[in-house]
Amino acid sequence: MDYTPSNKVRIVTAASLFDGHDAAINIMRRIMQSKGAEIIHLGHNRSVKEIVETAIEEDVQGIAITSYQGGHVEFFKYMKDLLEENGCGHIKIFGGGGGTILPGEILELHDYGITRIYSPDDGRKLGLEGMIEDVIKQCDVQLNGKAEYTLAMKLEEAKDIRKIAREITNAENGLQPIDNRQQATGNKKKETNKKQQTTSNKDQIIAIPVLGITGTGGAGKSSVTDEIVRRFLNNFTEKTIAVISVDPSKKKTGGALLGDRIRMNSISHPRAYMRSLATREDNTALSSHVQEAIDICRQAGFDFIILESAGVGQSDASILDYCDVSMYVMTPEYGAASQLEKINMLDYADLVCINKFDKAGALDALADVRKQYKRNHKMFSAKDDELPVVGTMASKFNDDGMNHLFRLLLKKIETKSKTGFGEIHFAETAKVSQAIIPPNRVRYLSEISESNRGYDQLVRDQSVIASKLYQLQGALETMKDKADASLLSSIQQQIDFYTEQLTPVAKKLVTNWPEKLKVYSADFYEYKVRERVLRIPMSTKSLSGTRIPKVVLPKFKDWGDILKWQAQENVPGHFPFTAGVFPLKREGEDPTRMFAGEGGPERTNRRFHYVSLDQPAKRLSTAFDSVTLYGEDPDNRPDIYGKVGNSGVSIATVDDAKKLYSGFDLCDPKTSVSMTINGPAPMLLAFFLNAAIDQQCEKYIIQNNLKEKVNRIIESKHAAGELPFYTGSDGNPVVPQKGELKGVLPQGNNGLGLRLLGLSGADVLPAEEYEKIKAEALQQVRGTVQADILKEDQAQNTCIFSTEFALKLMGDVQEYFIILLKQARTRSPSWHSHFPTALLMWNII
Q1: Which of 32, 130, 385, 839 is the most interior residue, by most CB within 10 Å?
Q2: Please, are residues 9 and 258 in contact by the beta-carbon 8 Å criterion?
Q3: 514 by DSSP, 3-state: which?
Q4: Cα separation of 353 and 357, whole Å?
Q5: Rounded CA separation 620/664 (Å)
Q6: Which residues, 6+ apart, have CB-to-CB distance to 734 below 8 Å?
Q7: Vertex 619 angle, CA 615 and 620, to 5°
Q8: Which of 251, 239, 322, 238 lies closest to 280 in space, CA to CA?
Q9: How far is CA 351 from CA 330, 334, 343, 405, 798, in A?
Q10: DSSP conformation letters of 409-435
Q11: Alpha-carbon span 494 to 501, nearest angstrom
Q12: Do the strands 62-66 and 351-354 form a parallel or antiparallel pair, or are they unpaired?
């Protein structure tokens, strides 16, 4: 297995839309790179349109996709159709998905024109390297030549990106541009006309400004470029932009990872074009064909061109030969201030961007770079604010630093190239602290550990005192009839002294121990929840009739041992809650989870009722499809449609949630719901809570004979057949008629939750009543919303919010329930730690 391609092979790699990770395709593309291929990697969660647009813009020979979340037949067919519709059917499509793509589906896709779908059997026969070599061999074709396309573009692009891409490919492969080849035929008249035309258009072409962005590797050049592209497209709605991005080729293999598109979220736009170039040489930051690529983009009439170099060292300033305005991107982590004196670009850069400004020492770095800039440019009297040195956080939405940098950039372009684009404006956005953890709380983990260690030391000290008191009290009891009064007085003084050293809590724990022993040796344990006394048996009987207590307290006699055990362990439901937050485990509720999730809400609802039929407790566990996990709506577009309801239920609205849990009283103490969701956790939580509230509104309407009144309100607002409905087991609608539901519901479904579809209880009930019902519902509903936000953020999977925003959102939701709890306690002072409202298991670790 040592195939060496004879042509430069370029392949787009990605994981399909809504796939949770790109681990598999990452392994594949690394092997491709080691075989000498140039890989344009897009990462995970990429739509067919994005992949096809990239493949055409990059003029590749092949596309390699992994798909593990279902919907692969529709996905690959749609990709083939889109390529053919845009005259690029020559681009080959390769795919794999382990056992998720069945043998019959592989044959169907091959018959449709997909080049190769690799199965687990192929992996066993060929191995990873064998499969990759097969891809490389089939893509080892020459793409040089005239770009003649008979079909018009259907991707709604402002330019014909196919022709631009092919001209750049010809230049990279050493072939003269088409116009030059035509001149070489010997037709001197055409050559003369061409020269005259070139001269007449020269000024117009040169007027197109080129921004050169360079900097150290890992400084975030691609993210900065993406933010500039976003602002350009948003502010100048008639202008077009081209990005030429260069990445280094590997000296050993000749392969290259052209990965800048991973960070380019705004580049998939009708008015934007991007081309990735490999240096195809070592020790260089730019391809030798950069100027030709710029000229081709200028000839195509783009209004603005950005050239981004590969990561550079301190001495490199090669980008200056190709641009009108230059920008140097760096981070605060450059080492000692003396290192700044070695950076060539600080002598020449029109703009200096200190990216990742949220890192420690950023303000010091900004001051140091400004000082060095003043020295290099002899601007000793200039004010700091007048210098073109800006701190940015390109990863932050609508960052003020990026906005300032963009303003300075436009001024520089106008000054140096005499080109103006027009007025700019930036929308206001919520201000989020630049640091996830505020500066005054950066030691919060240390503070927690210090607090815990301090508590442990306090417990040890108090337990020693309690032990001495126990010994002294025992001595006093033993000697009271045998010793003289002075000795007894001395012992009593010692007892009084040590008693004062005990904290009030420690005294209470010691003195109340006999009462606790009595409570836990009784037959029943009683405690209150919302004015209701719960009486739970404290023992069970074995098959042989032996009494087995549920909670057994230690047989300690020493007060120090008693105090230490209660302070460090204690019984369930009491501080420090090491044995659990509830006094006893709930009875009458089988711990078995009733798991379901497939298709639409009705289908999953039927499954829930099937698995929970006749069970005293309903413990529903919900799996959502990949479309819902990414916070997207279902759609007829093939690459989305194939994944709707696949490996989970599709939920996009409050009505979907009402259908999903219809027939289950979400406020019943014996009903609990588990929802495993990632990015859109707040939305799913809102769906769930509103479904529970509207269920209680329905019960209120029925119990108070308000059906006719409510029906009149609904009929005055909505025409017959206008509101959504539940699709019954027979495939026909289940609709309310005269207060009753007509249709076939699953066995066990009493229709609770289906009478207000398309409506809220707030639409049909007085505001005061609705608020009262809402408050009661939120106090009783049980459920968990499980979302590992930090894990998803670190893995770049299905986290659709930034970590800062997600944490702020979590805090706001939790604050809402804390306020609700305080209000409830005000109304009912006996409430304590058994508040059963929706438990937010919204994990961040």
Answers
A1: 32
A2: no
A3: helix
A4: 10
A5: 10
A6: 725, 726, 727, 728, 741, 742, 743, 744, 745, 751, 754
A7: 115
A8: 251
A9: 11, 17, 14, 8, 35
A10: HHHHHHHHH----------------SS
A11: 11
A12: unpaired
Partners of residue 111 on adjacent β-strands = none
Mean pLDDT by 10 residues, the chain (845 residues): 86 90 88 94 92 96 93 95 94 92 95 96 92 95 80 89 94 69 40 45 68 93 95 95 95 92 91 95 86 95 95 87 95 90 93 91 92 92 92 88 94 90 80 65 88 94 95 89 83 92 93 92 81 82 91 93 94 89 72 86 95 89 90 91 91 95 93 84 89 95 91 85 90 83 92 92 93 90 74 56 70 79 58 38 34
Q: List Cα–Cα distances, 124 to 15, 98, 686, 820, in angstroms.
A: 22, 11, 47, 59
* pTM of structure: 0.81
Q: 524 phi and psi, to 5 degrees?
A: -135, 150
147: CB partners within 8 A, 6+ apart: 162, 163, 165, 166, 167, 178
- DSSP bridge pairs for 242: 273, 305
Q: Give the full edge-to-edge strand order of the sheet including 783-786.
A: 594-596, 618-623, 671-676, 783-786
* Angstrom distances, CA of residue 276 to CA of 39, 173, 306, 518: 10, 14, 12, 77
Amino acid (one-letter) located at 188: K
Cβ-proximal residues to 428 (8 Å cutoff; 6+ apart), any chain: none
Q: How far apart are CA 603 and CA 479, in angstroms?
A: 79
Residue-by-residue DSSP string for 2-44: ----SS--EEEEEEBTT-S--HHHHHHHHHHHHTT-EEEE--S
Burial code (b: 16+ CB inside 10 Å, e: under 16) for 150-167 equals eeebebebbbbbbbbbbb
**Token digits for 665?**
């009283």
Q: Using the structure block, give the residue that is written with the tokens 């308000």.
A: 706
Query: 829: which 2 tokens?
Result: 């002072």
Residue 195 to residue 238: CA distance in whole angstroms: 30
Among 707, 692, 701, 705, which residue's Cα sits nearest to residue 654?
692
415 CB burial (10 A radius; 0-12, 13-18, 19+): exposed
Q: How far apart are CA 632 and CA 789, in angstroms?
A: 17
Nearest partner of 269 among 310, 221, 224, 302, judged by Cα: 302
